[in-house]
Amino acid sequence: QVQLVESGGGLVQPGGSLRLSCAASGFTFSIYVMNWYRQAPGKERELVASITTTGDSTNYADSVKGRFTISRDNAKNTVYLQMNSLKSEDTAVYYCHARRFRAYWGRGTQVTVSS
Q1: Is 8 exposed, middle or buried (0-12, 13-18, 19+ CB in 10 A)?
Q2: What pLDDT, in 10s, does the model give residues 17-56?
Q3: pLDDT tens, 73-91?
Q4: Which distant-in-sequence residues (6+ apart) come within 8 Å of 103 by Cβ?
Q5: How confident is the model at residue 101 (pLDDT cuts 50, 70, 90)?
Q6: Residues with Cβ within 8 Å of residue 112, at least 6 apart in sequence
Q7: How does residue 57 score in pLDDT terms, banded at 50, 70 and 90?
Q8: DSSP state, 40?
Q9: In angstroms, what is the C-alpha Rg of the chain?
Q10: How far is it, in rounded angstroms, from Cα 86 to Cα 59?
């Protein structure tokens, strides 16, 4: 059974940091490109960050470049999203996504940036 389980979301003040984790199981994690998406209320889901199978290449949405860092640990079947200098506009549900022959989604974790 394929599972992607996100954790680490919560309420944080503007300028703060959070680290999201996504634990994968039920498929060969190391051969899947891993992504983080987010969806804010009333908006479409958007791609935030991507990382290749070996972690040697990453890509980011312009809105998070320089503030967010995606990484992965293939030994632990886990992908991370380090989020620094958080802004109110980063408030959203963050989803983990795996892509290769098939695509899998996690259920999401809420991130709220507010004072």
Answers
A1: middle
A2: 999 999 999 999 999 999 999 999 999 999 999 999 999 9
A3: 999 999 999 999 999 999 9
A4: 97
A5: confident
A6: 10, 11, 12, 91
A7: very high
A8: -
A9: 13
A10: 18
Residue type, position 29, single letter: F
Q: 81: how many CB neighbours lie within 10 A of its CB?
A: 27
Sheet holding 68-73, edge to edge: 3-7, 18-25, 78-83, 68-73
* Other residues' Cβ atoms within 10 Å of the Cβ of residue 114: 10
Query: What are the angstrom distances between the C-alpha of 77 and each of 13, 47, 64, 85?
Result: 30, 21, 24, 27
Question: 82 and 68 in contact (C-beta within 8 Å)?
Answer: yes
Nearest to 61 by CA among 23, 35, 40: 35
Which tokens in the block code for residue 69? 């860092």
Q: Rounded to 10 degrees, what is the CA torsion of 64, 69, 73, 76?
A: -70
For tokens 């999401």, name the residue. 108
